[in-house]
Structure formats: C-alpha cells, structure tokens
Amino acid sequence: MLQTLYITGAGVSAESGIPTFRGEDGFWTIGSANYTPQEMATRAMYKSQPAEFLKWYYHRFVTYRNHGPNQVHQWLSDKNVITQNIDGLDGKAGNNHFIAIHGRVDQVTPFHTQGEPTECFTAPWDEVDESRLAESLLALFKIARRGPEKGVSLKPYVLLFDEYYTDLYRISEAQSRMYAADRIVFMGTSFSVNITQMALEIARHKAIPIEVVDPNPAHLLYKQVSYHRMTAREYIASLPTS
C-alpha cells in the first residue's frame, strides 16, 4: 500500500474563508501602516515593537480563529498531513496526527531561545479587550515596558521569517515522513517556503513521484511530477470513491 504524504498550503483553507498569503487579497500583500509583512512577522519586531507585532497578528490572523474546516480538511482527516497553515483546521477536522510545521495561531509558547525545549498552550486571544487593544495584548502576553522577557512573556506559536525550523515545529518528524513516503501530494501551495523545497529535494533524491494540486501550479524541474490544475476541493471530488 502506498505511503502518501500530503503537504498542504493556504489554498486548502481558502474555502473556509481564510485569505491565502500571496494572492491579490493575501496576508503577505497587507502590511501595517509603516511595515511590510516580511518586517512585521519577525522575531526582531516581536522583541522591539511587541504591541505592533501582536496587533498585526490579531488583525491578520486571529480574526479567523473561529472559522471551521471545509470538506478538504475533512477528507484529509485520516491522512498523513504536513500543513504550512497556522489555522489549526486540520485538528478541528479530527486529524490527530497532522504536523503544523509553521505552528498554530491558537497556541502560544513562553518566549525562549530557539532550539530550547518549551511547551505550547492555548493562546489568550479570546480575552483581548479591543477597546484598548495594544494595552490588552501586552498584558495578556505578559510583556512589560522593557519588552519581552524570556521564560515570562508569551509568543504566538508561529514560525517567523527570521526563525528556523526546530523540533518545536516537529521538523525531524516531518523529514522522517518525507523520507518514508512513496508519493507526495502538494495541495494549494506556491513552493515559496523552505519546507516545500526540502520535500522536493528529498523527492528528487529518492525518486519519489509527486503530484501538484493547484489551479495555477508552480512549474517544477523534476520529471516525476503530475499536475492537477484545479482546486483541492475539485481534486478530491475527481478521485474514485472506495
């Protein structure tokens, strides 16, 4: 029996009403008043301007925290999944074994040095007082005037642009799943992040056939690739039922 690994991106969550990242209305086209998304979503911004950082995450991501999974998430619920999405919708759909390789916006960690062991727990977004947004966020995330304090302050459990994959994000397990796969299916991803490039290199090294599901798929320099120019929902509808 084939060991299929599904690597999913923002296109899978689009039908749940969550904007993609690089489309016309995507998150990465939207900055703050003074900063680009690539500047906002960084550890450096969290440390130097935590109120701006937290407000940006609150407006761009947390407002979608109560959206539910769609039929693609339901279909993937018993599959071997690594997702780039931080929305946690695979878990809401009942997949207890998916890897959220970029973290989950519904969780936080204590502020820590990367690579150190730490824990994750539920984020306090529901307690935010929007009438005094900055002050409320700083208080809930335990950030004083001098800035975040390691071991005390809270940080969203999300991988930032100036951070790297660690086992907090289950990178070793993700790589093991890639090497063990007989087939890799990329769904709704633009191949613009490191995890998709890592999977592609492993596929090339092990001659693993891959499939790309996307209405406008990125062209890959690899012979063993099949393209499905459709949405993830259209793809699962096209598959034979067992």
Automatic annotation (TrEMBL):
Q: Which PROSITE patterns match?
A: SIRTUIN (PS50305)
The record's listing under SUPFAM superfamilies reads: DHS-like NAD/FAD-binding domain
* Pfam family membership, one: SIR2
Please report the stretch or stretches of sequence annotated as the Deacetylase sirtuin-type domain: 1-242
Q: What class of enzyme is it?
A: transferase
UniProt keyword Membrane, yes or no: no
Instruction: Report which superkingdom the organism of origin falls in.
Output: Bacteria
User: Gene3D superfamilies from the xrefs?
Assistant: SIR2/SIRT2 'Small Domain, TPP-binding domain
Which GO molecular-function terms appear in the entry? histone deacetylase activity, NAD-dependent; NAD+ binding
Q: Which UniProt keywords apply?
A: Acyltransferase, NAD, Transferase
Q: What is its EC number?
A: 2.3.1.286
Q: Which PANTHER family match?
A: NAD-DEPENDENT PROTEIN DEACYLASE SIRTUIN-5, MITOCHONDRIAL-RELATED
The identity of this protein, by name, is protein acetyllysine N-acetyltransferase
Q: Which organism is it from?
A: Pseudoalteromonas maricaloris
